[in-house]
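Assemble and predict.
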Amino acid sequence: MHKFRLGLAHLYTFLFLIYLLAPLAVMSGAAFNDSKLPSIVPWKGFTWHWFQALWADDRMLVAFGNTLVVAAAVAALAVIVGTAAAILINSISGRLRTVLYGMMISTILIPGVVIGISTLLMWTKLGGLIFGSGEKMFPFIPGLHLSVLGQVSYIAAMVMLLVLARLQSFDAGLEEAALDLGASHAQVMRRILLPHLYPAIGAGAAVAFFQSIENFNVTQFTRGGKDTLTVYVFSKVRSGITPTINALAFLLICITLVLAVWYEIARRRRARIEAAREAEAREAEARETEAMAEITGAA
Amino acid sequence: MLRRYGSGLTLLICLLVAFWLLMLVIVPNITLFEQSFRPYLPVTEIGGPRDVYSLDNFLKVFNGDTQITLFGRSFAIPVHVLTFALTILYSILVTLICFALAYPLAYYMAKIVNPKTLPTLLLLLFIPLWVSEVLRAFAWWIILALKGPLNSLLLFTGVIDKPVRWIVDYNGVVIGLVYTYVLFMLFPIYNAVQSLDTNQIEAAEDLGAPWWKIHLKIVMPHAKPGIASGAVMVFMLSAGSLLVPSILGSTTSQWFTQTIDQWFKDALDWNTASAYALLLLILCTVFVSLAMWLFKVKLSDIAK
Amino acid sequence: MSAGIQLDDVCCDFGSFRAVDHATVDIKPGEFFSFLGPSGCGKTTILRMISGFIEPTSGVIRIGGQDVKGKRPNQRPTALIFQNLALFPLMPIWENIAFGLEMRGVDKAARRAKAEELLRLVDLPGAADKMVSQLSGGQKQRVAIARALAVEPSVMLLDEPLSALDLKLRQHMRAELRAIQKRTGVTFIYITHDQGEALAMSDRVGVMSQGRIQQIADPREIYNNPVNGFVASFVGENNIIDGTAGPAAGGLAGFDTALGGLRARISPEALGRPVKLYVRPEHTILTEAPGPENAVPVTVTEVSFEGAFISVLTQTETGKVLAAEIRNDGSATVPAIGAKLYASFSAERAALLPDATVRG
């Protein structure tokens, strides 16, 4: 590649990274500015004040708690459903597979507004069918449980894609070997298939968790007056904004960074261990060849 | 399947998938469909003589004209139709900008960057993806403010001599949507380009093809499924976004999802909201299918 | 401990394709039995039917005298060694080996002890806590054998387990497999397309083609007295000559060919059927004067020195190519290219064989 164009490519990537990361830096910076409005200009001095205000914001803490509960529920459900779906798709073929797969994938593309309204409608109407027009009760009233179900409807598809990709690298011979050695189907699942899928399931759980935290559209229509962090931040942005939001954003970014770095370190360690093992196998291979040469040499 | 997992597990797997597809996807959407044809009535009248199916909810789209000027001529057009058209139009614009921004970087990541620095680069790119959408929109709200850092910077460097109002018309919405969804374009294209055999590029170079022709004739055709899936994702997410238009919208911008939200939250008319949501779903699907047919891409390509 | 296996008129269809066609075989307890044949001949299907992954379309399979119809793989006293070994990559070696015991509810200490014992048996002491990815090809092989032995099967089924190894190691592992089989006394059923493997290790070999078992016999018999053309040419090399058989007398028959009248052995089954003459290159002798019988004048066209023997290609006057092998005993003379010689072979060493066994 031409030197000039190569330089240009590096520069472009650098600028792109700035474009992606600068807004986050600006937002974090504003958390420490002693100004009533969230901004980094004009700089009015460093303060921890907004973090204290954040800690004192009870509604925010409740919303934060709700978010975690919802995200955990979504992650659990989406992982179970998504893994089952991936296994199903992986073991069927033909037209049925195409139809089911298409249906699952399309859930990712359905606008959140549609998911939110349709989920709310179905469950409340179902309540209407069961209880008539009388007092409706859980789970047929709007609430965060409906947010969970609505979110699972498309996040499960993301988990499915991750698990399916991993499944395709799975050697079905391992299942047969385990069956042949006397394992039951449940034991094969628990000891052979699921351990192989764990990395994808873990990634799927993480994706589901963060997607749930992010979700606004579905939650907005189903939450029934309860707050999640996203909804709460949204209402704050629309009404009176104070830099407490920035303090919150800063903390979230820090958590994300820590998790990301931790993940990367773990990944590198695993890669190192695997490389060491492969080196050992190569060594054993070499010794074996040598030993063979001796045997045939002596004979 | 039965042979592979035994009857108990097979049944469990099928039940789980059935629960997902039926209870979380199909039946809710059928309910949405059914409700969209019913009028909005007080509780006591539901099931009464006035509770009949009609197209009234859908026809509300055509209520209330507004004037627009296009190519120097004035038209009367229903407000909601205009909103919808603009939503589609600006979503297309967002998709195009995302492609223009993401393609060079995707190519860089797949074919140019040192494989040792790639994990770090990926990590940096993933960070904004993990930060929630509302905060990303909020960040731009800060940056684009009249007295915000962008204007300060431009004033300081002398590019402009008085603050610019950035959030006018649909500017803020487009900027926000591009920032929020550009990574959804980047990763599919990156995956697609990565699977291209580098020898093909070198062969083309060796045969004397200029760099732009290599991209046009070799890289882009190979990456078409990735580009298509990125484009469909960005388009659908943009058209369906409610957060970004609400936070970064100006007084003159209106997104179709906001209209739906208003029927739902302000007018409390769930039936009309359903009708509008259905319209959004159907029209977007039709539009995407049309675009896919035009570019000869299949759904199965996209899912890769 | 070890069990015999009977296949009684077993057929297996995949759709309209008949993978195994009326297979009948009686494998004795403690026997090392090989199914030998080209890929697609149905040998793997037979193995998978015995292990229980496929049910036969018709016929009966008995293991240790018991009909195993409807029994799942985990309910049969067989252990399968897979072609790619199918070791569990996420478990350490000892857990791999003890997996079958774990499934049977054996407690951990006992499992560990058994795994260590088996590792000693397969000559891999000290590997218990390694991972699969740390092992060489030969070591993985041994672990796979140990894993199968751990469940104390009556029958071991081996699906070309040596095919991934390089030549030298493969030859070494043959001897070791044979030794393990002798030591444990377990019935081994071995699938391979490599005639050398089958002949070297087995007590008996079943040669298969197109779903049918063509011949079942001990290795010497298979090589020296193949029942038909397929077996003769799949196991070892042959000169094949077309012609028409005359009347037989005392197990020999005249054979009219373009090269003149020849004589060769003929079996009662081959009588009255179209046959060809098969004679091995190492039984084809090149001499300057015509030999006592079956002498054909030839011209030497190609000579290649292979070390232990010298391979010579010749051409008859009709253009037919005949191959001969001269054992290199240290004093053998290498014929010159273009030399006019006689190729001859004893009638006892040549056989008139039909193409393949046709049912009916």
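The two ends of chain B are 23 Å apart (CA to CA).
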